[in-house]
Amino acid sequence: MIYVISGIKGGSGKSKIATNLTIELAKQGHDILLIDADDQATASYFMAFRNETKQEEVGYTSIQLANKAVRNQTLRLKKKYDHLIIDTGGRDTVSQRAAISVADIYLIPFAPRSLDIWTLEKVVDILEEMTAINPTFKAFSFINKADFQGTDNQEVEKFLKEAANLNFLPVSIGNRKAFANTAAQGLGVTEFKPVDKKAIAEFMGLLSYLTNIDHLITRPWYFRNQFLKTERHVSIKAIRQTLCVRD
């Protein structure tokens, strides 16, 4: 599976999602390649921090690519890995479009801010244009850096649900310090101490959707109902497993 974590607005937490997704899939025993296609190279800095922290136990491979090389090298390397995760910058660039051209899943986090939601129309335009090149990819949005009070989350959710060609995932990842603290050490949110149970539960909710993506694509309403029934169980189980490992 080729996951592209992207968007056209900086600061929505794309690299946070890409690096945590990489780490969690690797912990499941998959061979993962993380491709940093962002000019800011956040995922590469993360890898450097992780090399210092984990040394011989990094758990995945990371490379940097740009422009047309994103497409060409991804196609060349995809048979060597179970999953490829491409982290692109928050702009409409050659690198981003090259990534979408080979994507299976295009994942777009939105922060509940007016400047982020104003980019939605442009995102939809890009999806329509790229479908002509890659007709099989599926695009999903969700709320990242969610507020803990107020109505902004609900208002953004309404806009995302109405967007054409963009499937809304009913998961919300809060704007928690745990993600920033873990990134500074090159760690995933499930690896960090002290444990932030809420941050872990939220990310595991997103992971639960993504690791059952076939059901999500073919039977979205059935899967959504099943997820809502089991969300609390999945999250608590994930937390307990993390606590056991860390202890």
Keywords:
single chain; 247 residues; Rossmann fold; 7-stranded parallel sheet; 51% helix; globular
Question: Explain this structure to me?
Answer:
By secondary structure, the chain is an alpha/beta fold. The protein has a single domain, classed as P-loop containing nucleotide triphosphate hydrolases (Rossmann fold, 3-Layer(aba) Sandwich). It is built from eleven helices and seven strands. The protein has helices at 14-27, 42-54, 68-77, 94-100, 114-117, 120-131, 152-162, 177-183, 197-210, 213-218, 220-246; strands at 2-5, 32-37, 61-64, 83-88, 105-110, 138-146, 167-174. The two termini are 32 Å apart.
Structural class: alpha/beta
Unreliable spans are 220-247
Distance between the first and last residues' Cα: 32 Å
User: What percentage of amino acids are in beta strands?
Assistant: 15-25%
Globally, the shape reads globular
* Cα-based radius of gyration, to the nearest Å: 17 Å
Helical region count? 11
Describe the biggest sheet? 7 strands, parallel
Question: How would you summarize this macromolecular structure in one to three sentences?
Answer:
With 247 residues, the chain is α/β, with parallel strands linked by helices. It has eleven helices and seven strands.
Task: Present the secondary structure layout.
Blueprint: E1 2-5, H1 14-27, E2 32-37, H2 42-54, E3 61-64, H3 68-77, E4 83-88, H4 94-100, E5 105-110, H5 114-117, H6 120-131, E6 138-146, H7 152-162, E7 167-174, H8 177-183, H9 197-210, H10 213-218, H11 220-246
Helix pairs in contact: 3-4, 9-11
